[in-house]
Amino acid sequence: MIAKRKGEITPAARRGLMSTRRDSTTDEWQKQWIRRRLRSMVWKQWQRGTTRYRELRKRGVAAQEDAKTAGSSDGPWHLAKTPALSIALPNAYFVSLGLPELTVHG
Predict the structure, then answer these.
(1) Domains held by the chain: number
(2) Which terminus of the chain has a smaller tally of CB atoms within 10 A, N or C?
């Protein structure tokens, strides 16, 4: 799903980062929001609790933590900020998909 939408996300991310270069607080907030949104999209893509559990385990999350996260009734936006998804889907994962790195150079 993310690979299909990469064409939409990449230009939007670049535009957003370019428009807030003046304010580092806003820039950091926007990068955090984009990362959280991406994790939320992946969580929705996994759909079922068993798939979510399997994917979290495959990505190195502890068994008790991923069982708690996979079985949670909280929505994707809330869960995208959990330590389990931060471990399972680090920033490097999205860079490996071809999305731009969310750092401002220069």
Answers:
(1) 1
(2) C
